[in-house]
Amino acid sequence: MTIEPETTAALDLEELRTMIADVIDVDVAEVTDDATFADDLEVDSLLALELAVQFENHYGVKVAEDEIAQFTDLRATHRLLAGKMAGV
Amino acid sequence: MRNPLPGSWALVLGASSGIGAATARALAVEGVNIIGVHLDRTDAGPAVEALRSELTAHGAEAHFFNINAARAPSRAQVVARVADLTGGAGVRVLLHSLAFGSLLPYLPRAGFAEALTSKQMAMTLDVMANSLVYWVQDLVRAALLPPGAKVFAMTSAGVAQTLPSYGAVSAAKAALEAHVRQLACELAPLGVAVNALRAGTTLTPALQQIPEHETFLAQAASVNPHGRLTEPSDVGEAVVVLSCAPSSWITGNTIGVDGAELISAGTSWGSEQR
User: Fold this and answer.
1) Which of A28, B4, B47, B163 has the greatest count of CB atoms below 10 A from its CB?
2) pLDDT value of position B148
3) Does residue A49 belong to the interface with chain B, where contact is any CB pair within 8 Å?
């Protein structure tokens, strides 16, 4: 809610799945490991930005504007966030 | 006879930059406390914090919420916070200045391989127009839009003019102005005024997203009889002035805040002639 990042949380795949489902307003079961955000889950540019903001606040990472398009599905998102959290 | 502003509250949607930020500044100078809603990545954090500090330096309270203003659960959370922060008094000013939409043509053309999709059209209308209605509905349900409150929504000359990439946004502005008229009539019994502000061409982050903005800016500067573009602070001034009106008689309008840019013919009045 606020601009201060929340306490950094561990990257749990199921928690990530739930967070994404919550933001894009679909049933958790629809966020399969490889359902594509853009085509299968109808994530538009606004929801993609909102997801990026949620990832930043929840996991204490930074997402550059041109990285938003790399969050293509749950698997890719988990990999990218894990890399960021490991400081890669 | 004035409707005094000091100590009142403003809810600014799209508060982190451009016209929303400038209006927050202008209101804070008048002693209005600010509740700002914005959606920004961490990159914008320092700028938002600087704005918040600037507002509080005027003695006003300033609270910012980094959320998607078009999403119902987020809206509900902020409305609940508005109730807490204002002690149930509600907001004197609601400014809708959300600029997030799709800037694609309806048909592919040179330089634009992609055409607008139905999803993008729906998102643009939802954010830039329909969300005004939903915010007003939630605020009225919570009794947070008291008599004397003023609602403003940012429209543009693009409501009646076209640009290659402005189709969906133009449609959203047309819908927004229709929403303003409808809300003005429905809120009249509550003594709440609703107006659309048609800013002139203003150099904001949103304008800079429009692919053809450079040619458009140059033309606007040459047309405006004041010999300059509209500044975000010009809109802030208009909001302050209109918010002081005691009654809700100025309502249901689209009010030009453009230095007469729209009505000046050709470049005959503009900076090129000076």
Assistant:
1) B163
2) 97
3) yes
Check CB contact under 8 Å for A49 and B39.
yes
How confident is residue A2, by pLDDT bands cut at 50, 70 and 90?
Answer: very low
Where does B53-157 show beta strands of DSSP type E? 62-66, 93-96, 150-156
| Residue A59: closest CA among A78, A33, A40 | A78
- Is the CATH code 3.40.1260.10 the one for domain B9-273? no
User: Could you tell me which residues are beta bridge partners of residue B96?
Assistant: B13, B153
pTM for this prediction:
0.93
pLDDT of B39 strictly over 60:
yes
How many helices (H) and strands (E) chain A has is answered by: 3, 0
Q: Which of B29, B32, B24 is nearest to B48 (CA)?
A: B24
> Best of B68, B75, B78, B127 to disrupt the A interface by mutation (most A CBs within 10 Å)?
B68
Domain-wise residue ranges, chain B: 9-273
Q: In whole angstroms, what is the distance from residue B131 CA to residue B146 CA? A: 20
A32-85 in CATH: which number? 1.10.1200.10
From the CB of residue A34, how many other CB atoms can be counted at a distance below 10 Å? Answer: 10
